[in-house]
Amino acid sequence: MTTIEEISFEQALAELEEIVQKLEGGTLALEETMTLYQRGRNLAAHCQHLLDEVELRVQQLVPDGDEGYSVAPFDAET
């Protein structure tokens, strides 16, 4: 298996979906189930980490009060 740090978000998500399908099948041996479950947890954490990094880079333009705009962190509630 490829190390998690080497794969893109899309690859990690696709592999995670495959793991979920296998686990939902319920026909795996206990050891294989545990191995896939741990890999899935690690993939999910990797996806979350990548999303967190993107969120930090997303910014928005906001009025600065002087008829101009300034750059601020993105706030989904505004």
Describe the overall structure.
By secondary structure, this protein is an alpha+beta fold. The protein has one domain (4-73): Helix Hairpins (Orthogonal Bundle), CATH 1.10.287. The protein has two helices and two strands, in the order ααββ. A two-stranded antiparallel ribbon has the order 1-2. A hairpin with a 5-residue loop joins strand 1 (59-63) and strand 2 (69-73). Helix 1 (9-25) runs antiparallel to helix 2. It is rod-shaped and about 65 Å long.
Approximate shape:
rod-shaped
Distance between the termini: 42 Å
What's the total number of strands?
Answer: 2
Radius of gyration: 19 Å
* Element-level helix/strand string: HHEE
CATH class, named Mainly Alpha
Count of helical segments?
Answer: 2
Structural class: alpha+beta
- The quaternary structure here is single chain
Largest sheet: number of strands, sense, barrel closure: 2 strands, antiparallel
Average residue pLDDT: 87
How many distinct folded domains?
1
What spatial order of strands do you see in the largest sheet?
1-2
**Share of helical residues:** 55-70%
Percent of residues in beta strands? 5-15%
CATH architecture: Orthogonal Bundle
